[in-house]
Write a structure and sequence with these properties.
six-stranded mixed sheet, three-stranded antiparallel sheet, 12 helices, 19% strand, elongated, alpha/beta
Length: 388
């Protein structure tokens, strides 16, 4: 005969309660403080404001006593201040100081816990080359070419951030300046907000200089992406991890900075230039501005004829064709960069090193709420005794 072992009795309610009671309780408070960080640790110096608030109350108390002493008769002064509630006055000082401590702590943005995410990063290297010469102030597009273009560029930057692209920016008139490629599009938007054709000096439309700076940004991006490779079998800049493109947005002609030479250099590096002509083919008069940036008529030549700005379609098409890019004319009645967005969607996106992102919980509400309650309490407390 085969005897099967008797089944173990099912645990009863008392057994479960005992097991739960004997299990080690998680140290929640310790875990919370182990993960606590300050999002704005650079504001730690604001803690000096807390003792200053306390010192202000101490100073005010001493000044008040000194003022009473100067009044003369102590008995008469004592009768005058009998209605003052000294306990409430002290409590207001303590409550306000604690509220200041909480508010400073909230400004430092304490963060705790969080969830770790591994985000695969991939995308294009794009440099936006934007014409900010004074001709961009023409009002054939409402409210002006430059303002409408800035709005369209901000929308384009939002899409680029969603795609994971690295974007750089070059702003130019007679000279070029800008920011290298980065995934932080917020900085680029701030840069665009500060750019103004009225303050760009010297004047002109130096497309060649702008393209040269854009090429330098893209070559630097290649070197940064492959800095771990110490030995290469070829000389010169390394090949790109993904397609690299320059998007040139302009409304004028370039007669001095040799943009075609820069286009040939871009073709050798495998960088495409997409050109966007802004404005009308017939031309618009170029505004003139005084020292304060206010409109002051229109620019004229030596004979008194108005200077006109018009799109150099032939030149822009040549730049794009040299590098395998494309050209589009953005006319005033249908101003937008949708065609540009379509171009970059079809290009190759390289996979770069994955990025580890930690999403932390914000702890400042736990400091702001009691601070507001304490301030409300300090306002509710009166410094005078209620009449009996």
């Amino acid at each position: 005969m085969i005897f099967a072992p008797a089944p173990a009795p099912a645990p009863g309610p008392n057994d479960l309660a005992a097991a739960v009671a004997s299990a080690p309780a998680p140290d929640t408070v310790r875990t919370l403080f182990d993960t606590l960080v300050l999002g704005r640790g650079d504001l730690l110096w604001l803690l000096v404001l807390v003792p200053l608030v306390a010192a202000g109350y101490v100073w005010a108390t001493r000044q008040r006593r000194a003022g009473f002493a100067r009044l003369g008769n102590p008995t008469l002064v004592q009768r005058l201040v009998t209605s003052v509630h000294r306990g409430n006055r002290l409590l207001i000082a303590v409550v306000t100081t604690i509220a200041a401590l909480f508010l400073v702590g909230a400004l430092m943005r304490p963060q705790y816990g969080g969830t770790t995410r591994i985000v695969p990063v991939g995308g294009l290297d794009v440099v936006l080359v934007v014409d900010y010469s004074k001709s961009m102030l023409a009002k054939d597009v409402y409210p002006s070419r430059s303002e409408r273009l800035a709005a369209e560029l901000r929308r384009f930057l939002d899409e680029a951030e969603h795609r994971g692209d690295q974007v750089g920016l070059v702003v130019f008139a007679g000279a070029a300046r800008g920011l290298p490629v980065s995934r932080d599009t917020r900085v680029l938007k701030l840069y665009l907000d500060k750019a103004d054709p009225r303050t760009e000096n010297p004047g002109g439309t130096a497309i060649g200089k702008a393209l040269k700076l854009a090429l330098q940004y893209l070559v630097d991006a290649r070197k940064a992406g492959q800095s771990a490779v110490k030995e290469r079998s070829i000389d010169g800049p390394p090949p790109p991890e993904a397609d690299q493109v320059i998007i040139l947005l302009t409304d004028g002609e370039d007669t001095s900075s040799r943009p075609n030479e820069m286009a040939a250099e871009a073709a050798k590096l495998g960088i495409r230039i997409y050109t966007v002509g802004i404005g009308s083919k017939s031309g618009e008069p170029i505004q003139k501005f005084d020292a304060k940036g206010q409109p002051d008529g229109y620019q004229t030549d030596e004979k008194g004829n108005y200077l006109m700005t018009r799109v150099d379609e032939a030149g822009l098409k040549k730049l794009s064709e040299t590098t395998g890019g494309e050209y589009v004319l953005v006319e005033p009645e249908r101003f937008g960069l949708d065609a540009v967005s379509e171009w970059v969607r079809d290009l190759t996106r390289g996979q770069r090193a994955d990025t580890v992102t930690l999403d932390r919980e914000e702890g400042y509400p736990f400091l702001v709420a009691p601070a507001l309650l304490l301030l409300a309490l300090s306002l509710a407390l009166g410094e005078r005794r209620r009449p009996s």
